[in-house]
Structures are given as structure tokens and as C-alpha cells.
Design a protein that fits this description.
Blueprint lengths: L4 E7 L7 H10 L6 E5 L18 H11 L3 E7 L7 H11 L11 E7 L7 H14 L2 E2 L5 E3 L15 H21 L1
Parallel strand pairs: 1-2, 1-3, 3-4, 4-5, 4-6
Bound molecules: flavin mononucleotide.
Flavin mononucleotide binds next to helix 1.
Length: 184
């Protein structure tokens, strides 16, 4: 491969002690030969307003640039009320406008989700996949990473310690790298 695959990692939670941000950090810490994961912060994005879509605020321009320059996207998100959190939807909307200038088009993507219950955020994943149809993204199908009881998977310092989850995360990142290579 000629150059390293750049993966933009986005957490769907702004919470300081977010389990999903910790999961994303664990993924970003996996040593990879052909790829690197950069965490892209969405906390500074304004609420999308179509009044300014032809003259985007600087934070949105910067966010779109980071997405456009990435070869693949990794979404790591909780489920809020059976869907994705509003902050993640807002980031997706910000990156998608104006019409015809979406930063998401053609990007391969993988999704990890979790929950403090038993379902692992699966319903949020399917809403995200639905958005990816209109965004013309290319979601990775397998492996699926849906982490139940996510609060039990980290130590007191926030490190991912659950071996099964660690293995799944690694498997997904490696699969995303292969998938991105195929689509290049
Ligand atoms: C507004 C809100 C809605 C939620 N809705 C769901 C839900 O639909 N399904 C679920 O499994 N957990 C739900 N939860 C619980 C989250 O899984 C839990 O708060 C989780 O820790 C959030 O991820 P974070 O730690 O990365 O912030 C909800 C939490 C909030 C704050």
C-alpha cells in the first residue's frame, strides 16, 4: 500500500467520562502498520442551520476538511432513545451540506456501539446505516461491534480491559483497513 490509511474516529458522546470515547481511544491505540486513527472532536460544532450552509462557520469548514481528508470513518456511539445521539446527527448534518458538497460521500465506515444494558446500542447502528444510504457511504458489514454492559469493560483509569471486547475492536479495525483498501 502506498500510504497509510487515515481513519477519522468520531465519538457520539460528549460526556467527559464517556464509555464510547474510551472505546474509541482504545481503538485509536491499536498499533497498525498500514493505518492510523485520528480522533475528530465534534463538541465545538454549532447546531446546524440551513441559513448558513452557503457560508459555513469556521468550525464546520475545519470539520469537513478533516472528514474529506480521511480515507475512512469510525463511528463509536451510544444509543439515545433507540437512535443516534443528537450531537452525532448534527455532526453528520454539518458534514453533509451544502447539497453536492458532502464530505461523507464515498467514505468507507465502521460502527461500534455500546449500552449500559444488554442490547449494545444495536438500534442506533441501524439508524446510522440508514443515514449512510443517502450519504453514499460504504459501511462495513462484519464484524459487528455492539458492546453490552459497556460500563464493566474498563478499569478505573478508563483503559479497555475486557479481553473479548478488545479482540472484537481489533478485528473490526483490521477489517475496516482491508475494506478501505478494497474500495480505494
Ligand atoms: C438521552 C439518553 C437516552 C438513552 N437512550 C438509550 C437507549 O435508547 N438505549 C440504550 O441502550 N441506552 C440508552 N441510554 C443509556 C446509555 O447507553 C448510557 O447513558 C451510556 O453510558 C451513554 O454512553 P456514554 O457513556 O458514551 O456517554 C440513554 C442515555 C441517555 C442520556
Amino acid at each position: 500500500m502506498d500510504k497509510k490509511i487515515k481513519i477519522a474516529g468520531i465519538s457520539g458522546s460528549l460526556r467527559k467520562e464517556s464509555f464510547h470515547t474510551k472505546l474509541l481511544k482504545a481503538a485509536a491505540g491499536i498499533p497498525l502498520e498500514d493505518a492510523e486513527i485520528e480522533i475528530v472532536d465534534i463538541s465545538q460544532l454549532p447546531l446546524f442551520n440551513q441559513d448558513w450552509e452557503m457560508n459555513l462557520p469556521a468550525s464546520v469548514v475545519e470539520f469537513k476538511k478533516k472528514i474529506a481528508e480521511s480515507d475512512a470513518i469510525l463511528f463509536v456511539t451510544p444509543e439515545y432513545n433507540y437512535s443516534v445521539p443528537g450531537v452525532l446527527k448534527n455532526a453528520i448534518d454539518c458534514g453533509s451540506r451544502p447539497y453536492g458538497e458532502s464530505a461523507w460521500s464515498g467514505k468507507p465506515a465502521a460502527i461500534m456501539s455500546g449500552s449500559v444494558g444488554i442490547f449494545g446500542g444495536s438500534r442506533a447502528q441501524y439508524h446510522l446505516r440508514q443515514m449512510m444510504v443517502f450519504l453514499d457511504m460504504h459501511p462495513l458489514n462484519k464484524p459487528e461491534v455492539m458492546v453490552p454492559m459497556i460500563q464493566d469493560k474498563f478499569d478505573a483509569s478508563g483503559n479497555l480491559t475486557d479481553e473479548a471486547t478488545k479482540a472484537k475492536v481489533k478485528e473490526m479495525i483490521e477489517a475496516l483497513v482491508v475494506w478501505t483498501g478494497k474500495l480505494r
